[in-house]
């Protein structure tokens, strides 16, 4: 509720910036506490899952990021930077596994795959099979490829929400949902169709209502 | 006009925003663009126009990904979710997952929307709600929505079923109590034919087993057979293109099934038994030339290693890992190393068979593999194989990457110190490591090497010769240089004389000047840091005593550092120069070998388990390198006192002392000789005599001789614990009492001094009278007074009392003082001393002390008199003068 009040008070852009930064500090405090909780909680419950999916380009710009456990935004970006600095220093034709415990805490593994200008990175814990995760990246990329016909970085940038839809059909809350790219494609196409249809309905109904109100 | 038909009517489109952001050249430009965009979005939010919500959220998600704050959009997510349209709901749920997390209270508001959507007519909306719930479900939501999810496990569409299964995992993780509700529907799902659903069902069962014992028991009893059959069918099934990953049928399902079987087999012999066959089949029949197949094999090995033992299967498993190790694919080798790491605890012998291959992996070009392999080798090392393994690692050290050297040396050092079978081997290996990668070695490591060498007295000669030989070839590694210099300094004599030659050594001929040459070259090397140079100076000083013939040359080398801009070096140079030039007689004392440090203490200290309190000898070696940097003043104070201000107490001083002390010295010297060499006693006496040449000092100096020597030699390179020395010097100067443990024996014996008054203003001070001399027949009392304005001169009134029953006639008092004193005797008040203390003779005299404040008065006296015409002579010396006269 306080969020809205904070927003409604900000009428001019300048006051917006000020109140936003104040709010940001406040939030940072909260998230700091929260992150402590998270770590202890994780240790307690030993979440067994894929912890994050990152797609970044070879300049280190994030293209898709999805964290399946709670990470404050600042920490997310710190982690992304750290991952990139590790990845960009690795030679070609070396293994796809990197020691990630320094970045993501104990019991974390990192698998990455390099395609053209993009790094696809999966972070997970000991509950998952490293080689299978490598295959999962393959599944993800194959699906993207089918969706966009020779997927490139720009497709991912501009179809941001569609990529998320695809990802949500493959990994669900940190668990592998589907491993067949055909199945994923089917589901995504249904969603796209539905979206387009309802948009059309929306448009028609609106133009009709506009026309009637005339 | 309708805003959707005219996207430019308000704000920009998502696509345009992305373009604008991508067009930014600098981070500042980007920030500005995003700030502008955020302001526009806020305004739009405030206008509360439902038509733009969708677009605003999409933009916010992009902004969020770039790492900018987007919290102001959280309520918009909820509004979108609550709206009826599919696109709005979709973007709303997407925003919910990305912008919010389970911690935020806003989330409470969404529970109701979720509940409605889980019951929605449209299965895609149900799918969206499930997906959101699976990502952000909190414990409260889990309790509220568990019935809906449970119902959805039987939904007609497989897509919903599989999402519901994964959502159930999240729910039971949040609220383990709910697990029992899910056991039945989950086991029912295991009969699914649809691969996607089956994967999630197996996963759900695995998680149920993890959170609940009852569920584990139930599934183990009811489903093990079925799962084994499913896996068998899968392994034998023909090609099915849909779930194929590069020619292998559904590796993910394979892996999930193997994982679940692992959970079921762990700790249960029957269940393990029932899966043996299929595991063997999967382990042998799966082709191993593809990544997907290897993933299955890898999982299979993990399962075999975890379930209840079957020797044959384990052999198979380790065999698979061995094959992995020789695979050319880096990934495969990486996982093999990972797995072997786990297998080591179960069966180290089997893993040891692949020792050679693992060692090859340590040398791999891939950093990840090297690291894993090194860790594995580290675990594999034991007493029996430490030698060959270390040899391999050390030889690799020569060729490996700079980045890797740090890790590698740390591990080698750790292995060597942990498993070293004998000291000579330890020394050899450490020399090699220091030579190759000295700069990567931690300080404790080379210090530990010094400790080990100094402890192995029979290897002193060997170590110093080995170091010398190696040092001739290379002096690039500073840590090595330090060890070599230290040893050459300490054991220089052994180096020259080939003492303690071992059979395996080659004879080397090193002359004294060779050794000095080497250190001279080293100390001139500009790259060395001053600690090393300081150590080199100490080594030179030590050599100056070990090799008397080179002493002058060494002095010349040392003198060069007199003007060094590093204070430490400058100071050492001056001190050492003074020791060599002027204190030949004490030098050998000062530069004696370092006392051996107890290894256990050192290791304990390294581990931080011991506090800093310890014996002096332990302290000295441990903090040797640290001490270097600290000011080394007190020893020098002591020496300076002798050399610069006082008449030198060298040979002539000694003679003089002998004269002066006469009878009393000899027992003291003898008792000293009992403990240390005679010369040592003399030297120390010299030192101490400067201030107070007196009875009470002699005995402590002799008796505490050895400890004093320890202190001296220790402080040669250990300037941290100089306080004992401080006290040593203060003994002769003032009666300051101290409480330093090292000097305790001396202090006890010097208690006599403690009673004398402390140093105070010289002028006009009243000094207590002393009984200067007392025999059975005669008592002599001194009263002191100072001449105002002349602190050096003391007026002494001597009062003589006759204790015998006979009158003394022709009474003559004579006194003698050392050269630094001047004595003026006045005539006595009379020459006859009445018997039985019925009268006295007084005599005044003046003593001028040129070393006032530094040395106390001493005096020898001779008294002659006649008793009934018979001559009598009494002699004695007086040393209990108040100290600051």
Automatic annotation (TrEMBL), chain A:
Major subcellular site: membrane
Family: Belongs to the adaptor complexes small subunit family.
Any Pfam family matching the protein: Clat_adaptor_s
Localization: Cytoplasmic vesicle membrane; Golgi apparatus
One GO cellular component term noted in the UniProt record for this chain: cytoplasmic vesicle membrane
Entry's Gene Ontology BP terms: Golgi to vacuole transport; intracellular protein transport
Primary gene name: LOC107469570
Keyword set, alphabetical order: Cytoplasmic vesicle, Golgi apparatus, Membrane, Protein transport, Transport
Protein name in UniProt: AP-3 complex subunit sigma isoform X1
Lipid bilayer topology: Peripheral membrane protein
Domain AP complex mu/sigma subunit: 49-194
CDD domains reported in the protein's UniProt record: AP3_sigma
InterPro entries, sorted: AP_complex_ssu, AP_mu_sigma_su, APS3, Clathrin_sm-chain_CS, Longin-like_dom_sf
From TrEMBL, chain B:
Family annotation (SUPFAM superfamilies): ARM repeat, Clathrin adaptor appendage domain
Keywords: Cytoplasmic vesicle, Golgi apparatus, Membrane, Protein transport, Transport
Membrane topology: Peripheral membrane protein
Coiled-coil zones: none
PROSITE patterns: GAE (PS50180)
Entry GO terms, CC: AP-1 adaptor complex
Compartments it resides in: Cytoplasmic vesicle, Clathrin-coated vesicle membrane; Golgi apparatus
Record-linked Gene3D superfamilies: 2.60.40.1230, Leucine-rich Repeat Variant
Keyword Glycosyltransferase: no
Domain GAE, chain residue ranges per copy: 765-882
Listed Pfam families: Adaptin_N (PF01602), Alpha_adaptinC2 (PF02883)
Top-rank taxon: Eukaryota
SMART domains in the record: Alpha_adaptinC2
Primary location: membrane
Cell inner membrane found in the keyword field: no
GO terms under biological process: intracellular protein transport; vesicle-mediated transport
Entry's transmembrane regions: none
Its biological purpose: Subunit of clathrin-associated adaptor protein complex 1 that plays a role in protein sorting at the trans-Golgi network and early endosomes (TGN/EE). The AP complexes mediate both the recruitment of clathrin to membranes and the recognition of sorting signals within the cytosolic tails of transmembrane cargo molecules.
Xref: PANTHER family: ADAPTIN, ALPHA/GAMMA/EPSILON
Family note: Belongs to the adaptor complexes large subunit family.
Name of protein: AP-1 complex subunit gamma
Organism field: Arachis duranensis
């Amino acid at each position: 509720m306080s969020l809205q009040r904070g927003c409604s008070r900000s009428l001019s852009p300048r006051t917006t910036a000020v109140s936003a930064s104040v709010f940001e500090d406040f939030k940072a405090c909260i998230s700091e506490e929260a992150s402590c909780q998270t770590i202890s909680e994780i240790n307690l419950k030993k979440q067994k899952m894929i912890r994050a999916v990152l797609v970044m380009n070879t300049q280190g710009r994030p293209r898709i990021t999805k964290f399946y456990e709670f990470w404050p935004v600042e920490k997310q970006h710190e982690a992304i930077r750290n991952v990139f600095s590790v990845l960009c220093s690795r030679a070609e034709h070396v293994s796809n596994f990197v020691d990630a415990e320094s970045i993501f805490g104990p019991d974390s593994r990192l698998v990455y795959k390099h395609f053209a200008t993009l790094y696809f990175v999966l972070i997970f814990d000991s509950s998952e099979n490293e080689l299978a995760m490598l295959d999962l990246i393959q599944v993800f990329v194959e699906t993207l490829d089918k969706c966009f016909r020779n997927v490139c970085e720009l497709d991912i940038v501009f179809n941001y929400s569609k990529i998320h839809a695809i990802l949500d059909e493959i990994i669900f809350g940190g668990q592998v949902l589907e491993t067949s790219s055909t199945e994923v494609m089917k589901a995504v196409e249904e969603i796209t169709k539905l979206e387009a249809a309802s948009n059309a309905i929306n448009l028609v109904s609106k133009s009709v209502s506009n026309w009637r109100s005339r | 006009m309708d805003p959707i038909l005219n996207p430019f009517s308000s704000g920009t489109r998502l696509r345009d925003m992305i373009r604008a952001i991508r067009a930014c050249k600098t981070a500042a430009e980007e920030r500005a663009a995003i700030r502008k965009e955020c302001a526009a979005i806020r305004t739009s939010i405030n206008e509360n126009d439902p038509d733009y919500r969708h677009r605003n959220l999409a933009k916010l998600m992009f902004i969020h990904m770039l790492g900018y704050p987007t919290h102001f959009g959280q309520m918009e997510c909820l509004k979108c979710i609550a709206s009826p349209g599919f696109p709005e709901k979709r973007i709303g749920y997407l925003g919910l997952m990305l912008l919010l997390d389970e911690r935020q209270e806003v989330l409470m508001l969404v529970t109701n929307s979720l509940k409605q959507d889980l019951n929605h007519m449209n299965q895609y909306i149900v799918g969206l709600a499930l997906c959101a719930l699976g990502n952000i479900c909190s414990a409260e939501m889990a309790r509220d929505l568990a019935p809906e999810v449970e119902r959805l496990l039987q939904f007609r569409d497989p897509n919903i079923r599989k999402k519901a299964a994964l959502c159930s995992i999240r729910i039971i993780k949040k609220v383990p109590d709910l697990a029992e509700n899910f056991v039945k529907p989950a086991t029912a799902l295991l009969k699914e034919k649809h691969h996607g659903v089956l994967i999630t069902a197996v996963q759900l069962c695995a998680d149920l087993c993890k959170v609940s014992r009852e569920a584990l028991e139930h599934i183990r009893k009811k489903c093990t057979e079925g799962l084994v059959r499913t896996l068998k069918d899968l392994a034998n099934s023909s090609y099915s293109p849909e779930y194929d990953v590069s020619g292998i049928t559904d590796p993910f399902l394979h892996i999930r099934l193997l994982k679940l079987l692992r959970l079921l087999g762990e700790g249960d012999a029957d269940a393990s038994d029932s899966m043996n066959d299929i595991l063997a089949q999967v382990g042998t029949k799966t082709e191993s030339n593809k990544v997907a197949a290897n993933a299955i094999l890898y999982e299979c090995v993990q399962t075999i290693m975890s379930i209840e033992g079957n020797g044959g299967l384990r052999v198979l498993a380790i065999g698979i890992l061995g094959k992995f190790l020789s695979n050319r694919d880096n990934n495969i080798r990486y996982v093999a190393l990972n797995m072997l790491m786990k297998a080591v605890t179960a069966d180290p012998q089997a893993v040891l068979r692949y020792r050679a291959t693992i060692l090859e992996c340590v040398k791999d070009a891939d950093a990840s593999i090297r690291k894993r392999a090194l860790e594995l080798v580290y675990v594999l090392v034991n007493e029996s194989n430490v030698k060959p393994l270390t040899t391999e690692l050390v030889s690799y050290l020569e060729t490996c990457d700079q980045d890797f050297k740090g890790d590698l040396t740390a591990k080698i050092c750790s292995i060597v110190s942990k498993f070293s079978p004998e000291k000579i081997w330890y020394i050899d290996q450490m020399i090699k490591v220091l030579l190759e990668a000295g700069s990567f070695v931690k300080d404790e490591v080379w210090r530990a090497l010094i400790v080990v060498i100094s402890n192995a007295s029979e290897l002193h000669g060997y170590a110093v010769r080995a170091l010398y030989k190696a040092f001739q070839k290379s002096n690039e590694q500073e840590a090595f240089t330090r060890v070599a210099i230290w040893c050459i300094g300490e054991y220089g004599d052994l180096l020259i004389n080939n003492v303690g030659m071992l059979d395996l050594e080659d004879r080397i001929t090193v002359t004294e000047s060779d050794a000095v040459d080497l250190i001279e070259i080293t100390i001139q090397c500009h790259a060395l840091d001053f600690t090393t140079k300081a150590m080199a100076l100490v080594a030179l000083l030590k050599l100056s005593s070990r090799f008397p013939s080179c002493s002058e040359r060494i002095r010349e080398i040392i003198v060069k550092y007199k003007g060094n801009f590093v204070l430490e070096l400058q100071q050492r140079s001056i001190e050492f120069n003074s020791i060599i030039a002027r204190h030949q007689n004490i030098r050998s004392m000062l530069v004696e070998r370092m006392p051996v440090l107890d290894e256990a203490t050192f290791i304990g200290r390294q581990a931080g388990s011991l506090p800093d309190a310890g014996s002096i000898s332990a302290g000295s070696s441990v903090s040797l390198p640290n001490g270097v940097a600290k000011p080394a003043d007190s020893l020098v104070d002591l020496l300076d006192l002798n050399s610069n201000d006082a008449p030198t107490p060298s040979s002539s001083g000694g003679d003089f002392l002998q004269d002066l002390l006469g009878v009393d010295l000899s027992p003291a010297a003898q008792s000293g000789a009992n403990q240390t060499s005679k010369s040592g006693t003399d030297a120390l006496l010299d030192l101490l005599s400067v201030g107070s040449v007196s009875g009470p000092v002699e005995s402590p100096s002799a008796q505490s001789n050895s400890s004093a020597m320890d202190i001296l030699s220790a402080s040669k390179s250990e300037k941290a614990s100089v306080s004992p020395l401080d006290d040593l010097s203060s003994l002769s100067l003032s009666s300051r009492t101290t409480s330093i443990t090292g000097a305790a024996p001396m202090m006890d014996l010097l208690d006599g001094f403690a009673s004398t008054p402390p140093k105070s203003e010289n002028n006009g001070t009243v000094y207590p009278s002393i009984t200067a001399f007392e025999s059975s027949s005669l008592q002599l009392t001194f009263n002191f007074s100072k001449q105002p304005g002349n602190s050096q001169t003391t007026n002494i009134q001597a009062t003589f009392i006759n204790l015998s029953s006979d009158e003394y006639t022709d009474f003559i008092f004579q006194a003698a003082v050392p050269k630094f004193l001047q004595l003026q005797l006045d005539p006595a008040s009379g020459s006859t001393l009445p018997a039985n203390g019925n009268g006295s003779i007084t005599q005044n005299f003046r003593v001028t002390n040129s070393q006032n404040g530094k040395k106390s008065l001493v005096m020898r006296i001779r008294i002659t008199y006649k008793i009934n015409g018979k001559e009598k002579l009494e002699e004695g010396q007086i040393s209990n003068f108040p100290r600051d006269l």
